[in-house]
Amino acid sequence: MTLSIGLDVGTTTIKAAAYDAAGRAMARAERATLVLRSADGSNEQDPMAVWTETAACLKALARQIEGADVGSLGICAQGDGFWPLDERAQPVRHAILWSDTRPDTAADLAQLRRAGALDIVGRGCDTALWPGTSALGWRWLRTHEPTSAAKVAHVVTCGDWIGAQLTGAVATDFANASIPFMDIERRRYGDAIMALDCEDMRAALPAPRKATDILGELTTTAAQQTGLPQGTPVSVATLDIAAMIAGLGLSKPGDAMMILGTTAVVTILRDTAAGHEPPVAAAALHATEDVIIRILAPSTGAAAFDWFATLHPQSLGGESAGAIADKLNALVREIPIGANGVTFLPYLNGERAPFVSPAIRASFIGMSSTSTKGELGRAVMEGTAYSLRHCFETEGGLPDVPVHLTGGGARNPVWCQIIADVMGQDVLVKPADDLGLWGASCIGRAAVTGENAIGLTRRQGQVTRYRCDATAHAAYEGPYARYTMLSDAMRGVQHALNQPKGD
User: What are phi and psi of 356, to 5 degrees?
Assistant: First the structure.
């Protein structure tokens, strides 16, 4: 039996799995990794520590499949951030992560916005820049650690770093290279390098390659550290979201996926870049196909449900997430669409899509002395669904094909049905929680065999289809219009409240 391995190096968790040709996971391993957080908003990781845990994860997997033929290893990982390497492909310093918000970088970003540089970035890569990107990391390093900056020979992402440790080769794929310098339409680095004053970083950027290219073979040292066979072919690493989209077999313009995890993500495939001005959200090239992934990431997803449940530990408490959901769902089922006029704006941690407002905060609007826990609970679930719809509306309208939904919130059938009715489109939920791993493994196999990666992702497995109720969708039009009106108004209120603080 020949197995294909998928590796997913997340920000806090590293996972690996070995699949047979039918897509069955024959073995799986997982390790935690540490984020070094500071009170000022700095988020960093020690690349060597990330590699150590990755090697340990692969070694645990290798013990489970000892004696099996390993045909390929595909990699996906957290994206963006700033992972500087020297000429020997070793870390110059700790990596600055995608989630970094150190004050100096935030101030630098504001200056770039005033200078109009972000509009140039938007025209090129159709992305709203944020502090945790390689451009801002380079500008910070150049100012604050010039000695380290002088040692930088390669600027890569997390997955590229792991690929270098496995094979000794440095490369990046088009998905990982997309932000912030890529000219999405031309598939090459563009004017954003000059606009962001990063011309001195150009030579350190690897030329983008296809994720289905062979990066190299597992070195003797890496084989000893991971327990995997020396010479195992390794494909060029890709972005974790790109691997998830591949794992679902999404490849055509209009295909869409939503993730309802702690935060939320909406991804929509497009055949051309919209070139938003000012730029909104982000765009990345597909891992294997000639399409563009629009990525919108609302700050609050299933965290809103968890937050509300923890406010009622006696009535909504439980030993498991499922038990808690059952209790709240029982209340929500008794409440009509629109929560009897109560609207929840789900901005518990500010908002970043479909608009950017770090200071905006969540609120219930429309409560009265008779408002019930069930009404508030339904408003929380509806408000999060409205947020997802708001992203689609900003991107041109509601989907015209069924939308895939994954993440912890996808395990809640009441919430899934609400989302389907709000969207006006069927929602498809697969029970698999390994989409990134599976997508990475198929990309790795395609790199070796020359097969079509998307074709390889088809595997048997139950799909739950939540069918949109046309009557319910029509009933949601008024409450959704109320939500968008209140959202717009609250942004204005928040701006006014910030003025005395000088924000």
Answer: -105, 120
Q: Are residues 204 and 234 in the same domain?
A: yes
The range of the structural domain enclosing residue 335 comes to 303-429+469-501
**Are 222 and 234 a contacting pair, CB within 8 Å?**
no
461 within a domain of the structure (yes/no): no
Q: 103-114 vs 134-144: helix axis angle to the nearest 10?
A: 110
Cα Rg, the chain, nearest whole Å: 23
* 262 domain residue, yes or no: no
452 and 364 inside one domain: no
What is the tens place of the pLDDT at every residue in 66-112?
Answer: 999 999 999 999 999 999 999 999 999 999 999 898 999 988 998 99
Euclidean distance between CA atoms 251 and 291, whole angstroms: 7
Mean pLDDT on 226-237: 98
| 341, 444: one domain | no
- Asked if residue 479 belongs to a domain, the reply is yes
Going by their DSSP bridges, the two strands 2-9 and 69-77 should be labelled as parallel
Whether residue 81 is contained in a domain is answered as yes
pLDDT tens profile 298-311: 989 999 999 999 99
The helix (H) or strand (E) run that includes residue 394 is helix 373-394
Number of domains in the chain: 2
When pLDDT is cut at 50, 70 and 90, the band that residue 362 belongs to is very high
Residues 6 or more apart whose CB falls under 8 angstroms from that of 32 comprise: 12, 13, 14, 53
Instruction: Supply the CATH number for residue 146's domain.
Output: 3.30.420.40
Residues 419, 421, 423, 425, CA torsion sign? positive
Residue with tokens 């597992």: 218
For residues 445 and 374, membership in a common domain is answered with no
CB 136 within 8 A of CB 107: no
pLDDT of residue 272: 86
pLDDT greater than 70 at residue 502: no
